[in-house]
Amino acid sequence: MNSGIDLQGTFIQSLMDLGLPAGTAKAIWMPLPMGLMLIGATVGVLVCVWQERKISAAAQQRIGPEFIGPLGLLAPVADGLKLVFKEDIVPAKSDAFLFTLGPIIVVLPVFLSYLIVPFGQNLLITNVGMGVFLWIALSSIQPIGLLMAGYASNNKYSLLGGLRAAAQSISYEIPLALAVLAIAMMSNSLSTIDIVNQQSGYGILGWNVWRQPAGFVIFWISALAECERMPFDLPEAEEELVAGYQTEYSGMKFALFYLSSYVNLVLSALLVSVLYLGGWDFPIPINLIAGLLGVSEANPILQIVTASLGITMTVLKAYFLVFLAILLRWTVPRVRIDQLLDLGWKFLLPIGLVNLLLTAALKLAFPVAFGG
Length: 372
Hints:
mainly alpha
């Protein structure tokens, strides 16, 4: 079922009807969803920071923010304003150009990755055929910025933090890519839209989490490691490295690292929702709901309601995963660097390979159940 209205096609066609060329109409369209993406990702960060404060307070039997706005909702805004107005300091013996470029390289790929995240059938900026691997390719750029920031700071603690970040990213990108490859094999596509469509029609029973439980666990652990969330925040482990590659940063440059971390967490949760939890798909099949209500699936009002609720489903699934990630931070202690690398290379990588081979075998044996 087509769960939504093709906003892009309708907007571009309207401009073309006014006499504008197709290329000009597309050029006018593109800034609109990209602006919405930037606003949505930034608001998502504010929600994450507020969640982090409230959940950590509940885990430690504290109150948390209460008086900076209703329920402390303006506390993340106060954080942002404080960082905007703080003095931007560049160390005297650092490489000023690379020192400034590092945070930009870290944050830019994360925002670009939102291009391929679908919130509904037609509610995404671009449906790239290699969508999921485009995200993996963009995420692999981030360690370059971290290493650059550590090196340019001319500080041994910062350099060690950047080296740790690069080693961690390489260790966990391979298991993550193997988990994605198993999903692509089942869906016969790397497009995020096709992956969700392959799970739709059967409600919660059709979601990939049941057919790929090992892949789901590998992907989520690897995504947390890529986001440098606890217990995998070794690049900025306070006990050993002061603050890692962030040691010499202040003001908006530090804020970019901070922003990147939370935007990446929301992005990872959205992609887990899309790949394993059916994206915008409902736990109860839409055709069953339409039958119970006595309404045709082609009813325009039902399609509008379905599209709106589809966005809600995608966001709810993502923020449930964000809740789990935050709770994990205040539950599990930080691992050592050797344990971190052992988990990636000696545990997740072999299981990822076995899962991929098993998926291929099951796809041949049961083509209907495994997307033959």
